[in-house]
Amino acid sequence: MTDKLALDLALHWERTTPDAPYLTQPVGGGQVQTLTWGEALTEARRMAAHLVSRELPAGSRIAIFSKNCAHWILADLAIWMSGHVSVPIFPTVGADSVRYVLEHSESVLLFVGKLDVWEAAKAGVPDGLDCIAFPLAPDTPYPRWDDVLDGVEPLGDFPARKAEELATIVYTSGSTGTAKGVMLSFGAMASSAGGLGDDLGISSDDRMLSYLPMSHVFERWVVEMGSLAYGFQVFFAESLDTFVADLRRAKPTLFVSVPRLWQKFQLGVHAKMPAGRLRFLLKLPIISGIIRKKVLTGLGLECVRYAGSGSAPIPPQLIEWYRALGLELLEGYGMSENFCYSHASRPGHARVGYVGTAYEGVECRISEEGEIQMTSPGLMMGYYKEPELSAAAFTEDGFLRTGDRGEIDAEGRLKITGRVKELFKTSKGKYVAPAPIENRLQTHPDVEITCVGGSGQPQPHAVVVLSPEVREQLADPATRAQLEASLGEHLAAVNGQLAKHESLAFLAVAKGDWTIENGMLTPTMKIKRHSIEETYAPSADAWYGAKSPVVWE
Q1: What pLDDT does 463 receive?
Q2: Is residue 227 within 8 Å of residue 208, measured between CB atoms?
Q3: Given the DSSP bridges, would you call strands 447-453 and 431-432 parallel, antiparallel or unpaired?
Q4: Domains of the chain, with CATH numbers?
């Protein structure tokens, strides 16, 4: 734990290691620019001086709409130095979401950065709102960062921010409806960062690649606040096409991701080496070590000493697969409302299927209804402008109602068994928890993502999305027939592990992909159940009427 806040931590590295590399940013064509701690803080101080010159009311909301980049962190620091509150916006959302966040937060200024969606999203910026464009921003009519700071001297001393002060408003990804503004204090963010490395031995010698949305608390906690707390170097990804090259450049020692990307890595390996052959080679005493190193080096993960997964449940079989490669993939658990400071598996003490034990200062319990309730140093101050929702989020004795169902084993390790609100009832009056079933379905090598539903039907069903490589081969009748047989066998195997009322009537194979852009996934790549259910509802009766274990959209 640490009693130093974000700006105190940044000033420490500026003072003690000004020449150490901090932020490494790709600038195109395979070229990168690295800012030292001294250079980064000087740049942040210059922008802070500009913001002070605007004479905005103390605590004004200033938004950041950008993919991860060095200037994201610089802008955040500048906002804090100048006495204001940062408001991140997910870099994948459309105009309606941009306008909602800007208007709801009452932001007075917007930083526009590196974006792929600008043309579709720019209509969401209200007329008259002041904006500043990052160096890597698309073409905009706004003044650019370097031009704004031309001739501006760095801000010297600035008022200390207090632990109880509001630091940021993070709008949730909206998987269950309208996004809520989670208010986080400087103290909550710093305490969470300080506890991050207690069991992992994180130091300034570590390296991380930043690519998950900085606008979400997971990346903000691990990368931004983690680097401020421990002084390690942060590399940024240039694009999806260069991701593997970005990984190889960074050679991260710490790497965290979401289950879908860990699964994509696995599918990529299997595309080059069939799963059966890989399993065989990993059993050979001498060859296995060579194969493990080759696979991990190919993924850019050969230097990783801590690998984590969060944001959504990960299939236990996937964890076992990485363990066979020599990478102990550890699962964690957290949410926006506690700045992700909740639970994590510890090296050497993980139990597959469990998200680990509580961090220092966290107290966890299971309610009579099976809900996980907890207290944490990272707890939010509440939801912005939502006093009733804020009150409802906590029990009378101050425990956060997570909305997740779970159980705790004898050693204090937590297992997530589903969402309280995701439970649905079949026409037989039986309740079904979809998440554990989805985890089992996603162990099929060709299934990328799935959604279990069936409210009001005699039995539940699942809609599955196949991996892109497999979808490209479905035009071949023989391949399609073989896949259908394989999916049918997998369905039978999964149903054999379920209670009778949970067994799936069929698997429906979706035609296309589920993406953030088409509204099927949240910005953190969780499925949007209500969107998926609405999309496929018109087909449900025909699917049930087909009475086939596998149906095609």
Answers
A1: 94
A2: yes
A3: unpaired
A4: 6-234 (3.40.50.980), 254-302+304-420 (3.40.50.12780), 423-552 (3.30.300.30)
